[in-house]
Amino acid sequence: MQPEVLTIAEIKAQYPDQWVLVGDSELTDPSILGSIVSKLVSGVVLLASKDKREIGYRAKDVKSGYDSITCIYTGEIPKNRKWLL
Fold first, then answer.
1. Is 81 within a domain?
2. Per-residue pLDDT reduced to its tens digit, 11-70
3. Does some domain include residue 83?
4. Domain count of the chain?
């Protein structure tokens, strides 16, 4: 069975406020800087979870066979959010 390709709007509707691992991601223009979510057109949902760490732990099991992998958050990230790198 061929995996279903969803648009970014369908992904956001089906997986609200979740981290989503998308395979075979189609981007509008990957060379332009900016948010991946704003450039993502469509892809195959491989995993979805409220916990980003779960995506990280399980990604290696599902990503084989895909040319590109993208991880996005479908909700709104607060403006005062601090990111630790």
1. no
2. 999 999 999 999 998 888 777 777 777 888 999 999 999 999 999 999 988 988 898 899
3. no
4. 1
Structure tokens at 71: 């991880």
Question: Is there a contact between 73 and 18 (Cβ–Cβ < 8 Å)?
Answer: yes
**Does residue 9 fall inside a structural domain?**
yes
Residue carrying the six token digits 């997986």: 15
pTM: 0.83
Nearest to 75 by CA among 5, 27, 11: 11
What's the rounded Cα separation, in Å, for the pair 1 and 77? 35
**What are all long-range contacts of 9-18, with beta carbons under 8 Å and residues at least 24 apart?**
11/40, 11/43, 11/45, 11/72, 11/74, 12/74, 14/45, 15/45, 15/48, 15/74, 16/74, 16/75, 17/50, 17/73, 17/74, 17/75, 18/48, 18/49, 18/50, 18/73, 18/74, 18/75
3-state class of 56 per DSSP? Answer: helix
